[in-house]
Amino acid sequence: MNHSQGFLKDIQISCLVVGWLLSNTASIILSFRVWGGQSMTDSAPSWFFYSAEMIHSLFLINHLGDIFLEKHWKSVISRSVCDYFFEAREKAVDPENVPPVLQTPHHYLISIYRGKLFFLSVIQTEVPPLFVIEFLHRVADTFQDYFGECSESVISDNLVIVYELLEEMLDNGFPLATESNVLKEMIRPPNILRSVVNTLTGGSNVGETLPQGQLSNIPWRRAGVKYANNEAYFDVTEEIDAIVDKSGTTVSAEIQGVIEACVKLSGMPDLTMSFMNPRLLDDVSFHPCVRFRRWESERVLSFIPPDGNFTLMTYHISSQNLVAIPVYVKQSINFFEAGSCGRLDITIGPKQTMGKTVEDLKVTIHMPKAVLNANLTATQGNYTYDCTTKMLVWDIGKLNPQKLPNLRGSLSMQTGVPNPEENPSLNIDLKIQQLAISGLKVSRLDMYGEKYKPFKGVKYVTKAGKFQVRT
Amino acid sequence: MPYLGGEETVRELRRALSNPNVQSDPLRYRNTILKVIRTMSQGVDVSGLFSEMVKACATVDVVQKKLVYVFLCSYATLNPELSLLVINSLRKDCQDPNPMVRSLALRNMTNLRLPSLVEYVEQPLTAGLRDRAACVRRVAVLGWAKLHNLQPSSEIDAVVVNELYSLLRDPDPVVMVNCLRALEEILKEEGGVAINKPITHHLLNRLKECDIWGQCEVLRVLQRYRPQSEDELFDILSLLDSFLVSPHPPVMAATLSLFLSVSSSLPAVSLAALERVSGPLLAACGSGSREMRFAAVCHIQLLLRSVPGLLGVHYKRFFCGYAEPAYIKERKMQVLVELVNDENVAMILDELKGYCTDVNTDTAQAAISAIAVVQTMRDLVWVCPQCSDTVCLALEGCEETLQDIQGRQALLWLLGVYGERISSAPYTLEVLIDGVRSEASLGIKMELLTATMRLFLCRPAETQDMLGRLLHYCIEETTDMCMRDQALLYYRLLHCGIEETRKVLQGRRSDPSLGVLIGRPTKPVSQWARCFNTLEPLSQGAVEAESASRGSPEHMTYNPKPNADLSDTLSCSHIQEIHSGES
Q1: Chain centre to alpha carbon of residue A451
Q2: Could you tell me which residues belong to the region Disordered (chain B) (predicted)?
């Protein structure tokens, strides 16, 4: 209580000091009121607050456990802080199983595991975990965006740019510039031609000009964009996450959809995208450029697009009857007590493909440890079995409905080891071009605010996300 | 090779850096500096090159400057005197026409973190606050916070604080947010930045312009605000509504935190907010990032404490994928248990049964999963007796995978209560009874005794002999009083006749007609609201405390709770009552 009284006093003082705070003109600008109606009861309880400190240091660690990059935004913290992490890493056996949040006597360690790398942040006080995790992923995304992949070799090769990026992304532990197009104006991504030119001329990869994006009225679009060819392309990609059980019934199924855009339009175009069947979408998230009110009232996407590549929206369709399962799998995997061997027989056929061809079909099975080798024949495609990782991969390719692909044969097992109790599950990868499996279709795209006629295009593709068949 | 040959490398680098031929060739010079940074990031101590690097700072090449700054900021504290030499070139850069160079110089000036340099830094920082370019102002604002951290005891300059307050009105949203951050640090002693009505409304109105990090920051600071009227409160909530369903989990979580704090006196509003946020939270549970999924599931566990039925229909979202990391599987199973209701109980049990045998041979994983599964089933059986058949089927064969005390206790309890339906029950118990002398855990021994007694009542022929052995051991050999007392109690009970024994041991049960009972009573939102969006729900300790409080329905010796009277308990703490009740 004492604290809050002291606090009130502070407000008084600062109000006197800072003139504008006294003006009572400030009020909330509201378009309409959603919340209201209930009445207040008794007074509010006391509340705890955490200090504002954020990310102190970042360590990049490869899957072998070597720290190959470190960056400190506040004071320098010794590498020995990572020992707690290595301990947990030992315990977890698989790198995927390392818990993302570890507590040490003086710090919190929050890490993400991406592309066989750990991004380990050191934090000194209580922080919102979602914030830090999201930020670490943003760092990894930025590397991916700049270098095409996010691996140790690529990061070490581009050390200079990596340091430059990290310097711009955080200041004093607070996220600063994380938008890819803003960063790219400050630090140019590497490209082969330019690095050759740079080596010859000694030029640098620093933008010479002040980033424009920060000066335009619309934060996500820079002013004065000009293109000779004006074009807007959209990729609708849907991923099916499904679990199908032994008997072929769907245990769970949902679709994760995303619309990626590549918009290269001059000036300040204002686009409107409408769908044939917008009712399909109930769980959606948009790029900040989309006018949410128009979506709520008319179910159209109205937006002034950022320049270049961006994610327009993501959506999620979870009601199971809307999710078509494109393939069925007939399988039997048995391990025999006598003879230390097993049999495997898998057939895949089309189920609900809407008349399209299933491509890039691939089956991955993580075999039990006791399986030493596989001696199989595939009627289509090739299979490989990696004895160290115990991964059986069957790369099928295009699915021919007339002649269903089949993989069968025997598995040789370690002798003297009890039979594995569980059967491994099958992970399926596939791709269907020109189809959004949910049935989502863009009906039209209109442009306002500019005079020229742009090229427009929409492409659909369906992929398997986490698609798993249990045996 | 990291760590090895460090000295040799440093000597070589020094030679290269001070070679006039290298210095005159900008490209070679820069590459040498890059080599220094590489070596540094491999963990070799290259602080000995400080003076050479200071010289390299005087260059027009911005990239080279940046590289040198990386080096200087890492080692400045070791060489405070030499660092003085850098300050001149940094101050010159602060006058550069290019705003990028200005902001770079300003930032690194403050990153050196040397108290001795403060007097040289203040002037450029003051100028930086009034710079034309927003990117310089952003750096300058935070620079003051860093300066304050260097000498936290020093008097706060009221002029600077005022200037920072007025920069809250800066047209650039990042400058505004950075002002908040700086003021929070500088005014820490006074409780942070002053949050009054005009500031609050100003921040709220500009919230949309900020990036997601800025939004989180503003929302966090605003938790301190108490609306003065109900009207104002609901205006704020309405304004924040779209942030509550933000696609960015950090923003969504920060908004909910703010909702819960400002509406803490209105439980109905809090509950409505939880309902509204459940959609985005579920979406976060399906996020591509496993760390995000984990954090989201942990926070859902918090929500369920107050609104247990909230996500009942979405239970499938918590089914585990085969390749998911163990830490997510563990949490998902905990959530699944919470979501059990009449409709989905069969599906959930089926799913859990799958995990029981599906687990990888990896022992750690198997143990964790199996414990969770059996504990889960025990809770299920206790809570809704009609599903016990399914559990019994699932139970056979999973005794081997259990390693942990709680899990084994749970299994024993199940074997005792449903022994007649599990054909292998006596054999499982026999193995344990034969090894009872080497069993370390008292809890397991007690549970074993009770289970054997129960089994004896329904399958006397198979169990009589082993019960005799066990009672003999407990009464004659064991030194633990609790155990002896309990065994003696059973022994005397048996003397009273089988019917009497049955009455005691198979007394009260939860009523099958009750349908689904939700295990724990719902807790008010305020009980956990303050730890929402903090690390607390993610920590391992939280899980353990949670599961311990939900422990065995029988043996609640450590933490007896009001609902313990539901169980027909015979644990040591209750012996007295039952004894007197029966005699």
Answers
A1: 36
A2: 542-565
**By the CB < 8 Å criterion, does A369 face chain B?**
yes
Output phi, psi for B559, to 5 deg.
-140, 70
Q: Name the residue among A14, A33, A207 with its Cβ closest to that of B165.
A: A14
Work out whether strand A300-303 and strand A327-335 pair parallel, antiparallel, or are unpaired. Answer: unpaired
For B533, list phi and psi in degrees, rounded to 5.
Answer: 65, 30
Q: Are B107 and B139 contacting, i.e. CB atoms less than 8 angstroms apart?
A: yes
Half-sphere exposure of B235 (CA within 13 A, CB side): 17
Mean pLDDT (chain B) is: 76
Among residues B387, B304, B321, the alpha carbon closest in space to that of B348 is found at B387
Whether residue B548 has pLDDT greater than 90: no
Q: Above 90 in pLDDT, residue A232?
A: yes
* Model-wide pTM > 0.90: no
What is the distance between the alpha carbons of residues B519 and B509, in angstroms, rounded to a whole number? 14
| Partner residue facing A420 (CB), from B212, B321, B361 | B361
Distance CA B549, CA B547 (A): 5
Q: What is the helix (H) or strand (E) element at residue B323, kind and residue range? A: none
Q: Which helix (H) or strand (E) holds B253?
A: helix B249-262
Provide the phi-psi class of A354: left if phi over 0, else alpha when psi is between -120 and 50, else beta: left
Nearest to A131 by CA among A172, A175, A96: A175
The C-alpha angle B279, B231, B236, rounded to 5 degrees, equals 40
Q: Report DSSP state, residue A423.
A: P
What is the helix (H) or strand (E) element at residue B312, kind and residue range? Answer: none
- Angular region, B43: left φ>0, alpha ψ -120 to 50, beta rest: left
Q: Note which residues in 170-199 of chain A have CB less than 8 A from chain B.
A: 171-172, 174-176, 178-179, 186, 199
Q: Which residues of B468-504 are buried (b: 16+ CB within 10 A; e: fewer)?
A: eebbebbbeebeeebbebbbebbeebbeeeeeebeeb
Residue A171 and residue A192: Cα distance in Å, rounded?
Answer: 30
pLDDT of res. A171 = 85
Nearest one of A452, A345, A316 to A406, comparing CA atoms: A345
Contact A58, A76 (CB under 8 A): no
**pLDDT at B448 exceeding the cut of 50:** yes
Which residues face A394 on adjacent strands?
A363, A383
Strand A341-350 to A382-386 pairing? unpaired
Query: Which residues on chain B are in Cβ contact (under 8 Å) with A92?
Result: 326, 364
Q: How many CA atoms lie within 13 A of A39 on its CB side?
A: 1
Does the beta carbon of A420 lie under 8 angstroms from any beta carbon of chain B?
yes
**Which of these ranges, A297-306, A330-339, B541-550, has the smallest mean pLDDT?**
B541-550
Vertex B207, ends B205 and B208: CA angle to 5°? 100
- Chain B segment 367-396 residues within 8 A of A by beta carbon are none
Tell me the β-bridge partners of B390. Answer: none
Is it the case that residue A274 has pLDDT exceeding 90?
Answer: yes
Does B290 contact A at CB distance below 8 Å?
yes
pLDDT tops 90 at residue A120: yes
Element (H, E) at A314: strand A308-317
pLDDT attached to residue B515 = 36
User: Mean pLDDT across the stretch A243-261?
Assistant: 87
d(CA B369, CA B356) in angstroms, rounded, equals 7
3-state secondary structure (DSSP) of residue A300: strand
Mutate to test the interface with A, among B167, B213, B369 (most CBs of A within 10 A): B213
Distance from CA of B42 to the nearest CA of A (A): 6
Q: How far is CA B424 from CA A97, A318, B380, B393, B427, in A?
A: 35, 41, 21, 11, 6
A130/B292 Cβ within 8 A: yes
Distance from CA of B43 to the nearest CA of A (A): 8
Six-digit token pair at A450? Answer: 């500019």
